[in-house]
Amino acid sequence: MSRSEFDLLTEKEKLFIRKEHENKFISDTTWLRNAVHNAELNANRKKSKKFIDLFPKKQKADKEYNKNSIKNILAMEEEKGKGWVALIYKANGMPTPKKGG
Asked: SS3 of 27, please?
């Protein structure tokens, strides 16, 4: 974005850009702090302690549980229809989506 384009923005748009820049700065410094803290902990750990990962692995989905859930949902839809979807949308104050997109 050039200086002339920036000057054409409204004050509200400039405020959003500044806020997003602030959020990015905070995020970057938080990542750096976490990395330095993790490195320090690993460097000063006892020899018998386990190495601490900077990015711990996330738990994988339980495939068997998911398959059983899908079977239960399909069985409920055969018995009662798909009215439960409309109820969820209604409870969240959202319009029910139309068929076909």
From this structure: helix
Q: Which residues contact 76 (CB under 8 A, 6 or more apart)?
A: 84
Closest CA to 44 of 33, 52, 54: 52
42: tokens are 């690993």
CA separation, residue 51 to residues 32, 47, 62, 76 (Å): 19, 9, 27, 47
Both tokens assigned to 65 = 């549980």
Identify the pLDDT of residue 100.
57
Query: Residues 51, 45: contact at Cβ < 8 Å?
Result: yes
pLDDT of residue 30: 94
Query: Model pTM?
Result: 0.47
| Distance, CA of 84 to CA of 91 (rounded, Å) | 10
Burial group, residue 99, by CB count within 10 angstroms (0-12, 13-18, 19+): exposed
Q: 68-87 pLDDT, tens per residue?
A: 988 988 888 888 877 777 88
